[in-house]
Amino acid sequence: MVVVPENPLTGEPAGSVPGSVAVAACAAMALFYVAILYAPTLILRLPPPSSLDSFMIRRFACAIVSSAISVLASAILLGLGRFQDLPLVLGVFGIRKDHLWQAVVFPLFLTSLLYSGSLVKKSWSLMNPCRGGRTNSGRGVRSHDCVRSDAPRFLNWASSCARNVMVWRNYVVAPFTEELVFRACMIPLLFCGGFKIYSIIFLSPVFFSLGLQLGYTVIFGSYASFLFIRTGNLISPIVAHIFCNVMGLPTLSSSRTKGAATVACVAGLAGFCWLLFPATSPDMYNGRRDGCSCWQGYCSWN
Q1: Dihedral over alpha carbons 59, 65, 68, 69 (to 10 degrees)
Q2: Contacts of 66 (CB under 8 A, 6+ apart)
Q3: Which of 30, 36, 75, 179 has a CA that sits 20 to 30 A from residue 190's CA?
C-alpha cells in the first residue's frame, strides 16, 4: 500500500492541488509580479530613484524577489518539501541540465522560422552597404574594408549593450523572471489542479496578460507554454523569449527586398507548422517517460 503524504497547506494529497486554489495562486503571482515590478517605489515605500539606471536596477531586484517568492509558494502548494533530491525539485520547475543542447537549439530554430521574413530583411540591409558602396573619394568599397571597419564598430556596440540597463531588462531579466513565474511556477500548479494540456496552453497566457498588453503577449505566452510543456525544460521558452525580444514583431513583407521577405515569411510559417510537433517531441528532451500527465512524474503516485 502506498501512503500518500498530505500537503500541509491544502490538506490534499501531496502533488495534488484543487483547481480553484491553482487558479487563485496563479492570479496572485501574476498580480504580485506586475504590481511590484511596475510600482516598486509606491509599494515598497522607497524614495524616488535618482536616475533611469537606479530605477531599472530597483525593478530588477523586485523582479528577482517576486520570482523567488513565486517559486517558494509553488513549491509549498505542490508539496515539494517531501523530495530530498534537489535536482528533482528543480526539475519540477524545468530547471534541468540533461538534454540541454536540444532544449536550446531546436526551439530556437523553430522560433527563427517565424522570423524568416525579418531575417531576410536584416540580411538584405547588411549586405547592401558593401555592394556597390562608394567612399568619399569615389572608389568602390572592398569587402575586406567592410570587415575591417565593422569589427571595431561591433566591439563598441557590444560594450555599449553591456552597460545599457534596457538591454539587461529586455534580454536577461525579463525573459528569465517572466518565464520562471509564468511558466515554471504556474504550469505545474495548473497540471496538478487537474487542467488538461491544451487548457493550460491557452489559460496560462491570460495570467501573463494581467496588467500587460494583450494580443501578441497572449500569442507568445501560448507558444512559450507549449514549449515548456513539450520539452519540460525552462531554457526552451527562455531562449524563444530572448530571440523574440531581439527581433521584435515579425516582418511580413518589405518593399526593399523585392518580395524576398514575403516569400521567406510564407516559407518560414509553413516550415514552422510542419515542424512544430516533431521538433518538440517530448522523447527528444527526456531520457524516460513514465506516463504521468506532467514530464517529471511528481504528481503521479501509481
Answers
A1: -120
A2: 32, 33, 36, 37, 177, 181
A3: 36
Contact 110, 276 (CB under 8 A): yes
Give the chain's length: 302
pLDDT tens per residue, range 113-153? 999 988 988 887 777 655 444 444 444 444 444 445 555 77
**291: Cβ contacts below 8 Å, ≥ 6 apart:** 300
Indicate the pTM of the whole model: 0.82
DSSP-assigned letters across all residues of 202-269? HHHHHHHTTTS--THHHHHHHHHHHHHHHH--THHHHHHHHHHHHH-SPP---GGGTTHHHHHHHHHH
**Rounded to an integer, what distance in angstroms lies between the CA atom of residue 58 and that of residue 27?**
23
13-39 in b/e form (b: 16+ CB < 10 A) is: ebbbbeeebbbebbeebbebbbbbbee
Helix (H) or strand (E) holding 22: helix 19-38
